Write a sequence for this structure.
C-alpha cells in the first residue's frame, strides 16, 4: 500500500489477518503513474513500484509508537501556534509605535507597554490582552506536554542513551527513539541517509558532483538535528568551553560545519545492540 493517511492502521489490521504488508512512500509510487490519475492507474503504479528489487519500504508503526509520536507532533503544533500569536502581537504593537524584542520573555513587558500607552485606542488594547491570554494558555498546555515527554524520556532506555550525545535534548532523543527502528537498517550510514541529511548527488560520466544538503527525508527530524548541531557549535565557541575539540575546530573552518554534527544522533553506536 501507499504510505498515506491511515496506512499504518490498515497495515496492522491486514497483518493481523496473516498478510505481509509493505508500505511504499508516495514519492516512489508517483513515477509509475501513467497519464491521468485515477484509482486504477494508482493501483497499477503501486503494484509496479512494489515489484522493483531496490524499492525501500516504510516500517509499520505500532499503536504505541503512533500515540507517542502524536504527543510530539501536538507539541510542535502548539509551539507553532504560540509563535504565530507572539508575532501577531508584536506586529500589531509595532503599528502603534510600541516596539519589543524577540522572545517569549519580552511578551510581559510588551503587554505592559501597550497598556500604559495613552495613544492606543481601547479596542486595540483589548485585542492585545486577548492575544496575551491565548499565549499564556498555550504556554500552560506546552508545559503539560513537556512534563509528559520528560516522563516518557526517562522511561525510555534508548532515548536516555541518545540524550548522552552533545546537542541532543529530551525532545530530539525521544523523537528518534520512538519513530526510528534501527533493526531495519544495515548501518548508521544507511540510517543517516534515510533520515535526510545527505548531499544532493548530480554525478554523471564518472565524475562525482555533490551539492548541498537535500530536503529529502523527515523535515521535523532535520529541524531538530540542525537545531541541536547549531546549539552545540554556539556553546563550543564560548571561551574555555569543553565542547570545542580538534575535530569540531577543523569542521568550523570548512563550509557547512554543522552538517556532519547532525549525523551524530544517527551513529550506529548510539543504538542498543549495535
Amino acid at each position: 500500500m501507499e504510505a498515506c493517511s491511515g496506512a499504518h492502521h490498515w497495515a496492522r489490521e491486514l497483518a493481523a489477518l496473516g498478510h505481509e504488508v509493505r508500505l511504499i512512500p508516495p514519492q516512489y509510487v508517483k513515477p509509475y503513474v501513467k497519464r491521468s490519475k485515477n484509482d486504477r492507474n494508482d493501483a497499477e503504479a503501486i503494484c509496479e513500484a512494489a515489484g522493483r528489487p531496490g524499492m525501500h519500504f516504510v516500517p509499520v508503526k505500532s499503536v504505541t509508537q503512533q500515540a507517542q509520536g502524536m504527543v510530539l507532533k501536538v507539541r510542535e503544533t502548539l509551539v507553532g501556534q504560540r509563535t504565530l500569536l507572539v508575532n501577531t502581537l508584536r506586529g500589531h504593537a509595532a503599528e502603534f509605535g510600541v516596539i519589543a524584542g524577540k522572545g517569549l520573555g519580552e511578551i510581559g513587558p510588551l503587554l505592559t507597554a501597550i497598556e500604559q500607552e495613552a495613544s492606543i485606542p481601547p479596542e486595540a488594547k483589548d485585542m492585545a490582552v486577548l492575544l496575551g491570554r491565548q499565549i499564556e494558555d498555550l504556554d500552560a498546555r506546552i508545559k503539560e506536554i513537556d512534563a509528559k515527554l520528560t516522563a516518557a524520556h526517562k522511561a525510555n532506555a534508548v532515548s536516555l542513551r541518545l540524550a548522552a550525545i552533545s546537542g541532543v535534548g529530551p525532545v530530539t532523543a525521544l523523537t528518534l527513539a520512538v519513530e526510528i527502528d534501527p533493526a531495519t537498517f544495515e548501518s548508521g550510514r544507511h540510517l543517516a541517509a534515510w533520515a535526510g541529511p545527505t548531499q544532493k548527488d548530480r554525478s554523471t560520466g564518472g565524475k562525482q558532483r555533490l551539492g548541498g544538503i537535500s530536503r529529502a527525508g523527515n523535515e521535523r527530524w532535520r529541524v531538530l538535528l540542525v537545531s541541536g548541531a547549531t546549539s552545540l557549535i554556539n556553546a563550543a565557541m564560548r571561551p574555555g568551553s569543553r565542547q570545542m575539540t580538534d575535530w569540531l575546530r577543523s569542521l568550523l573552518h570548512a563550509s557547512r560545519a554543522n552538517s556532519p554534527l547532525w549525523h551524530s544522533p544517527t551513529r550506529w553506536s548510539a543504538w542498543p545492540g549495535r
In short: The CA atoms of residues 115 and 246 lie 52 Å apart.
